[in-house]
């Protein structure tokens, strides 16, 4: 398992994976592809948002978009692991590596109906923090009411 920061040389790989991510959530987001078959992205990799690629056995296996909201305050904006790699807790290990890289206050939000994502984040955050996190229903300006987990990581 290897984590790589998205830059100009691998941005195309990241963008390819985002299409699968957007398609997977399209029943909930009601997004449709454009005339070329592409989904619009909600979280571009720019400004305070950094993209990460997960590689397993040399293959692109997942992505994450992490916003640095302020000093030591992070938000998981996008997170996706290709289904064939969703075994042996690869997604959880991916999340834990990100938490280790950026100690501070974190939040993760899941849209209504994303039951598998909610369960994943409860497990991943719970195992990382020894179940020390706060979960609530938060009204997000863009997504409406979302399930949110807030927690702290340390170096």
UniProtKB/TrEMBL annotation:
Domain (N-acetyltransferase): residue spans on this chain: 1-149
Superkingdom per UniProt: Bacteria
InterPro entries with a match to the protein in the record: Acyl_CoA_acyltransferase (IPR016181), GNAT_dom (IPR000182)
Pfam families reported in the protein's UniProt record: Acetyltransf_1
GO molecular function: acyltransferase activity, transferring groups other than amino-acyl groups
The protein's name in its UniProt record: N-acetyltransferase domain-containing protein
Lineage, broadest ranks: Bacteria, Pseudomonadati, Pseudomonadota, Gammaproteobacteria, Vibrionales
